Amino acid sequence: MSITRRELLQGAAIGGAGLVVGKVAFGGDATTTGDTALSGDVGKIAAERGLLDEDVIHAVKTFVAPGKPSMDSHLLFASGGHSGQILVMGVPSMKLMKVIAVFTPEPWQGHGYGADSSDLVMAAGTSAEGGAVSASRPKLGWGDTHHPALSETGGEYDGRWIYINDRANGRIAMVDLRDFKTKQIFDVPNLETSHGGCFVTQNSDYVHISTMQPTLTDRSKAESLITDYKNVMRGYSTFMAINQTTGRMEQERSFQIELPPYTQDLADSGKLVSDGYAFINSFNTEMAFGGNMEGRPPMEVGASKNDFDMMHIINWKLAEQVIKDGKFEMINGMRVIRLDVAVAEGVLHFVPEPKSPHGVDVSPDGNYLCVGGKLDPHVTIFGFDKILAAIESKDYEKLDEFGVPVLKFDSCVAGRVEVGLGPLHTQYDDKGYGYISLFLDSAVAKFSLGEPYFSGEEAFKLVDTLKVNYNVGHLVAMEGDTVKPDGKYLVALNKWSIDRFPVVGTLKPQNFQLIDLTGEKMELLSDTPIGIGEPHYVQSIRTERIKSWEVYPAGTNPLTMELDPNAVADGGQRVERTGTTVEAWMTVMRSQFMPDTLHVTKGDKVIVHLTNVEETPDATHGFAIPRYNINVSLDPGECATVEFIADAEGAFAMYCTEFCSALHLEMQGWMLVSV
Amino acid sequence: MSITRRELLQGAAIGGAGLVVGKVAFGGDATTTGDTALSGDVGKIAAERGLLDEDVIHAVKTFVAPGKPSMDSHLLFASGGHSGQILVMGVPSMKLMKVIAVFTPEPWQGHGYGADSSDLVMAAGTSAEGGAVSASRPKLGWGDTHHPALSETGGEYDGRWIYINDRANGRIAMVDLRDFKTKQIFDVPNLETSHGGCFVTQNSDYVHISTMQPTLTDRSKAESLITDYKNVMRGYSTFMAINQTTGRMEQERSFQIELPPYTQDLADSGKLVSDGYAFINSFNTEMAFGGNMEGRPPMEVGASKNDFDMMHIINWKLAEQVIKDGKFEMINGMRVIRLDVAVAEGVLHFVPEPKSPHGVDVSPDGNYLCVGGKLDPHVTIFGFDKILAAIESKDYEKLDEFGVPVLKFDSCVAGRVEVGLGPLHTQYDDKGYGYISLFLDSAVAKFSLGEPYFSGEEAFKLVDTLKVNYNVGHLVAMEGDTVKPDGKYLVALNKWSIDRFPVVGTLKPQNFQLIDLTGEKMELLSDTPIGIGEPHYVQSIRTERIKSWEVYPAGTNPLTMELDPNAVADGGQRVERTGTTVEAWMTVMRSQFMPDTLHVTKGDKVIVHLTNVEETPDATHGFAIPRYNINVSLDPGECATVEFIADAEGAFAMYCTEFCSALHLEMQGWMLVSV
After folding, report:
1. Are B90 and A501 contacting, i.e. CB atoms less than 8 angstroms apart?
2. Taking CB atoms and an 8 Å cutoff, what residues of chain B touch A508?
3. pLDDT range class, residue A559, cuts 50, 70, 90
4. DSSP letter string, A19-47
5. Closest approach of B59 to chain A, Cα-based (Å)
6. Paired strand residues for A269
7. What span, in angstroms and rounded, lies between the C-alpha atoms of A207 and A201?
8. Which of residues 416-455 of B touch A (CB under 8 A)?
């Protein structure tokens, strides 16, 4: 057999086309398939299934063999849009590994269904000051996640935490990547909404978020928005300080910078040479506010009049010093550098950018800022060195109407590349190329950066374009937001899928398209429907950087990540009654709750401390009480507490909601509520 | 070039191993890749990625080429477990097409976040009678979906509706497959919980659901569960009548059959020869109820003492006649045939089944009922012909303690096959084989049925076993629940995944393993993590049977699927104030709301009628009001109404939550709430 194969290989070499088949070519020992039969099988199957040659190549480029998880070299963390969650997917398999519950309650994970560890997070994420709390609306029950930001050390992902903003309500959440659970939701003062302003500074000192629509500074005067927009509305750039041990955001060490009432949009952190700076796009410098049945133009017209909007350049290290010097005001619990102070201290500069931009994306070396002005067919590439020189030499075009110095466009631009229609967002590979999404063209354009990547004629050049399907929003290249991108793959986040998937209802999925970046030309590998949510921005991380726990140390409270004082081991189970409070310390294990029976009088306060005493990975149990809206997910080692008033009488079959063993169905108990 | 290829083919033929490469082998015209280069590329890529020969085969067997949706020949409808939803996936791609929001609010789909069409469904799904309604718990906010049931005509799926039960709260929901939205949640009287009893009769006359844990018949006497279990607890088999036009369940035409207080578990509908019958497994015929800290055995011990439990055989066509004859009692609004009447009228029989069974699964011809008694290493195969004969000849072993006649086991069994440890659930292919999951062995066993499929020595024989990873629960073969299964693929629903995927937190995904059934031996093709929820049961349907709408007729209310009286077209937009009510008729289109400004006084009732006037597939818009917990998804043509009290003052930036156009970010308006 091996002789035949060798002969064939030689024959192929003679044929001149480099044909390589069999064991060597297919990498590894095939125990169940013959050497030469394989090619025949592959061909036959491909033909039967209607796969073209290129499809076979793409299949082999994307297949993750069962039981070989490391073949998914990267993970994507995608915002879930108005699902309020984060999606975790593998690359190149593009399979959905987990939906992390963040702003929206999710019972499978026991997020917001009675467990103290999640209920406390969600309750703390609604501030009364923001006007959200009322009898009908005691807490915010969903979010619109837009921009995930992985924690960084030295501009590289460190796999510790991920932050994400709620575009709807101006909040920001922190997820711990030890257990992939949401530990904090922070309702940022002075922000009503936010959008693409979420990023982490290169050593995770701060997570940044800015207003999208500006905030009405006096909420008791709503109609003043119409009469006095310029004076009563303000934007805020927010630097939330990160506790380096817990990853939590700390309000008392955080600060904001007041901004004009433009619409602050996408933002990015400086890195390496530009570390210490932040860049925020804006649009609607026209300060339009709609009124299409009141004689004013709709926003889409009113906010698109100016040829240039203003990129905000913020020197946040300088802002730190301004705060240290006490030049701030305390507004709703936040230290705010007023706009005039920010200008006077040199914290804030503007540079014009082509109208209605969507992305400002900093290159791996920190020197280039690529802006897609979505109503302009170019990507405009600013040089940070040029910006810095212009700031230092006060090379101003003018002061804007709020007194902010505006740098000269021509002094700051390093290059422009005509890429196509509707440029939005740029990602980077490891070779000095940028990839920009083209919404209107439904395409991705590849272009070269300048020095030190490319020089002369080779710099700032369009080198390839690939059609995508359809209406692409953002892109993600592997670790493409970091100082050391991996290249390899690009994912196009297409907003529309139209005819790409079986029709499963009037609401269609988004389409994530995986693109191979290893060749000279981009190559479409696969389509993937997004069956839940509407991702906006994605960050990717090398899988090996994630060091998640599989099992908690016995009795861990996920909120503190420490031993819960009410955790019990075998022998510690008990029920105590004090007045009208019934308190139980319960163990949870295959296949019983202990105690499995609770005797309660209607109206009692019931407190149940649950400890999953399992030490085996995957040995998760649930704890549900029918009719009481209670469902807790208890991962191995986890401890959680449920507290409620037993206000419905009857016999309630408490049960395990996670199929845990052959006797899972027998894992139940009774809560008996008598009158 | 083609000569070289031919020479190679000849060479291969001489080699005797049937090597076929190039254009012919790879099926179709390759425009971008050379004939012979391809095999070389495939081999090189496979080697680089560490794929074995068999992996390449599996890649080619499962790859769905971009832009070729019909290559996903089947769709899976999987229960989402305690996520409360339904997952729709493609086969063989195994990609997640959609999470259908059912029992749990889901903002991406606008399910339960202010739109009347979904809020009314969710509110109607909580009956006060069930004890759920209280000040702290006005409605049930999650579910534990277990068993989906696609509508059938003549025992084949017709693609109209899907039903699914809520194991936690004993409810059942209906999803319309024209738009994949939940139209009805029905809180079934006399059921507190349910489990695997959900199925549709072969012409969708009824959807069936039974109690899991029996119901305390007098909820004011909770402690009587301990003192008098046998008398105060009862099970109920429920036949919900289906309206053949709307798919809705109609309480007034439905009925229940009272059952002993065993735990009624999985059930299946008779088909063809057994049409008119229903089969329900039971366990805990011991009537244990735990009490592990009160001197009683835990359920896992107490409910596993008897060697046999009781399969329930229900003649529901006879039950229809009994109801027609008026031999029922009305209990909580349901017509109930009492247990003694059911026995006297011949509606209910038992047959012993090996202890603690999980599945009773009817074969395609309707004659075999395969039972996996999970504490017995056999699959026990009952013959419906034998059961019928035993009933007709009153071939009773005894009457059970509730007076139900128990047929003789030996008279009803057609065959038994030793399959392995922990047999749970059987699915069928198109060739007369059954496939049963083995939870304890983490395997799937393939066995042959009897006449007319196989006879003599070939019948009732174990023919193959395949290891799966790990702890397999249910299985699904393509259309494997119908009278005409497709064979082709099997999916193993593994409860644990342990080491099969990158670790993304302490809560691990389930693992759906795709298995090829076309060969003599089962062949594992791929692993797929389930990133949201915990599927229990899955039904699969040929993709071509689904005839979903892509766009609603203009102004459609998804609840009625008819023109909404408040839908408006261009020109009909307006705002009217009546006392303290502000009512707006608003159009929604790329890229504006009209009107885009609402002027409101704090405390006003605000009613907004939203019509998406788009006619283009995928042109969905959202409508969110920050801080008000409102998010509506408006698919093209859809009309929905939002009503709320404006109890928070300020300026709220209403906006579109679905990225709809290049000027999507400009699609916003303001709600101004003044004091």
Report:
1. yes
2. 550, 617-618, 620
3. very high
4. ---STTTT-S--SSS-TTHHHHHHHHHHH
5. 5
6. A278
7. 6
8. 422, 439-440
Containing A494, the helix (H) or strand (E) segment is strand A487-494
Residues of chain B found within 8 Å of residue A467, distances taken between Cβ atoms: none
Do the Cβ atoms of B548 and A505 come closer than 8 Å? Answer: yes
Token output for B517: 């059934």
Q: Which of B189, B231, B222 is CA-nearest to residue B331?
A: B189
Tell whether B99 lies on the interface with A, counting CB pairs under 8 A: yes
The answer to whether the peptide bond before residue B470 is cis (omega within 30 degrees of 0) is yes
Chain B residue nearest residue A69, CA to CA: B501
pLDDT for residue B39: 63
Q: How confident is the model at residue A40 (pLDDT cuts 50, 70, 90)?
A: confident
**Element of type H or E holding B12:** helix B2-15
Both tokens assigned to B485: 């299964």
Closest CA to A77 of A227, A180, A213, A168: A180
Q: Which of B236, B257, B465 is nearest to B343 (CA)?
A: B257
Q: Quick check: helix, strand or coil at residue B103?
A: coil
Question: Is B349 in CB contact (< 8 Å) with chain A?
Answer: no
Say whether A57 and B38 touch across the interface (CB within 8 A): yes
Residue A106 DSSP code: B
The three-point CA angle B333-B335-B336 to 5° equals 120
Q: What is the DSSP letter of A182?
A: E
Whole-number Cα distances in Å, A495 to A498, A536, A538, B110, B310: 10, 9, 13, 18, 53
| Alpha carbon B450 to its chain's center | 29
Residues of B in contact with A19 (CB under 8 A): 8, 21, 36-37, 39-40
Three-state SS across A323-369?
A: HHCCCCEEECCEEEECHHHHHHCCCEEEEEEECCEEEEEECCCCCEE
pLDDT of residue A41: 87
Distance to chain A for B168, nearest Cα, Å: 5
Low-confidence ranges of chain B (pLDDT < 70): 1-39
CA distances from B343 to A616, B340, B400, B403 (A): 47, 5, 11, 7
- Contact (CB, 8 A) for B329 and B256: no
Determine contact, residues A477/A429, Cβ cutoff 8 Å.
yes
How many Å separate Cα B574 from the centre of its chain? 43
Q: Out of B59, B82, B106, name the one closest to residue A60 (CB).
A: B59
Q: Do the beta carbons of residue B335 and residue B328 sit within 8 Å?
A: yes
Q: Distance from CA of residue A117 to its chain's centroid?
A: 22
For residue range A210-248, what is the model confidence (pLDDT) as tens digits? 999 999 999 999 999 999 999 999 999 999 999 999 999
Cβ of A673 and B222 within 8 Å? yes
ipTM of the complex: 0.94
d(CA B561, CA B246): 9
Q: Read off the DSSP letter of residue B552.
A: P
Give me the mean pLDDT over the A177-183 stretch: 98
Count CA within 13 A, CB hemisphere, residue A578. 4
Note whether A85 and B533 are within 8 A (CB). Answer: no
Q: Rounded to an integer, what distance in angstroms lies between the CA atom of residue B149 and that of residue B242?
A: 13
Buried b (16+ CB within 10 A) or exposed e, A627-666: bbbbbbbbbbbbbbbbbbbbbbbbbbbbbbbbbbbbbbbb
Does residue A618 sit at the B interface (CB-CB below 8 Å)?
A: yes
Q: In the predicted model, is pLDDT for residue A272 greater than 50?
A: yes
Q: Buried b vs exposed e over A592-607: b needs ≥16 C-beta within 10 Å?
A: bbbbbbbbbeeebebb
Q: In angstroms, rounded to a whole number, what is the distance separating the alpha carbons of residues B372 and B354?
A: 8
Q: How far is A582 from chain B (nearest CA, A)?
A: 16
Residue type, A107: P
The answer to whether A123 faces chain B, any CB pair under 8 Å, is no
State residue A536 phi and psi, 5-degree precision.
-110, -55
